[in-house]
Predict the 3D structure of the following.
Amino acid sequence: MLGQLSAPKNLCLLRLSAIGDVCHAVAMVQNIQRQWPETQITWVIGKIEASLLQDMVGVEFIIFDKRAGLKGYRDLRQTLKGHKFDVLLHMQVALRASIASLCISAKVKIGFDRQRAKEGQWLFTNKKIAPQNQPHVLDGFMGFAKALGLEVTAPLWQMPLTDDIQLWASEKLSAANTAGKPIAVICPAASKAERNWHTEGYSQIAEHLSLCGFKVVICGGPTTMEKLLAEAIISRSNFSQGENEIQNLVGQTSLKQLLAVLKVAHLVVAPDTGPAHMAVTVETPVVGLYAHSNPKRTGPYLYPQYVVSAYAAAIKLQYKQSVEEIPWGTRAKGKDLMMQISITQVKKTIDRLMHDNYPELL
């Protein structure tokens, strides 16, 4: 801990990826900005993540291209040549991020506490955040604000969404929703296929949402896997045509456009994937489907009550111990773990979300 600091003139943040994690980091950055509005903030970030956050007020983004190999490090060093920061917040334990930190000149380099500073991160910093007991990733990031001597309050997000993009989302959704129904978004695909729930489950949930009065929209990225998954869900659903037809936006949105769609939506159903956390930043309730990672660590931050999880059962089976007895952050292993999530559980959770947030729809 550094104790109470006067506001530094400039501060650099190093967090390259992933989408969910940079959404958590935004809450920490904007917490700093509210208390130190004069501090200049530079964020070294990945290319895809920057496309979501560009135009964020008061932050200069410098893109680090991890795919460029050594050239990426040389470019970063060249871009930051002559820059001297008062503080570096080194918020990623991956070795590639630590090597990137060598390109950043800062008097104080703050990293995770020794227990969490994996892959030798502790070798690249000269200050540490305080140890935390089983924190959510977002709370772990807030530890950096605490290390600066700042007050940590409940997270607030002001995501950079222009009027044009929000108008695009409204028009895109309303064009396929002439009845003006509330919107339910399914984001079925995670970055790793094993984190995806099954097609039958998603199609039955789409039908359930439609019967509850929602217009169902499926969103996702442009990969072949995501497109095929969306098509399979739609083809299995009984609501693939007519007024209740599922709107397929997979591969048709930029990250900013997807964020705007999630903002218009009334609820989101998703596994452990970036859009689940994007939805949190625009205060759209999320039904999160989890089996491989602990939702208390990586679940939708504002909506833990709507998580449907097979994680604890998987851990018990694999390690013969409870979640509380194993190292925090331990992943459950297996390609079929998501199959343990029952369709009935997810339907009941959706109904509870509606009862809590949209009683007028019941």
Notes: Residues 315 and 321 are 7 Å apart (CA to CA).
